[in-house]
Design brief:
With 129 residues, the chain is mainly beta. The protein has a single domain, classed as OB fold (Dihydrolipoamide Acetyltransferase, E2P). Helix content is 8%, strand content 44%. It has 2 helices and 5 strands, in the order E-E-E-E-E-H-H. The two termini are 33 Å apart.
Length: 129
Amino acid sequence: MPFEQKTDRFSKQEFILTVTNPSSKGVYTDYIRFQCINEKTQLIEDMQAGDFVVIKFSITGRKFKNKKDEEIFYTNLDVEDLEIVNKGNEAPKEIKAGQNTDYSDLIPGLDQDDSIDDADQKEYDDLPF
């Protein structure tokens, strides 16, 4: 998406990450919007459509009232760090060979134990709803 210079001290650039998720009912594609703020926009200068990337991000949220006095909520995924794992639209050979959805061996500093299985999700879910 285009680079936006909002003020003299605030700029941002958004991009859409496409994630393919195989399931027992078929393959689904998710489209996830990330944003890079200020100096973080430099992280995506070399990124092209089709690149495989690893993203470290934080989740931020804001609320405000519109002209009708209704509360509006926004959630942003702010990029903290980004690494291009493989250029182009070819999956890294490690992924193609095993068709494994566990990418922990491709991500420096991530252990396989860092992922949460569906069966263990309730143990880790601390959301209030």
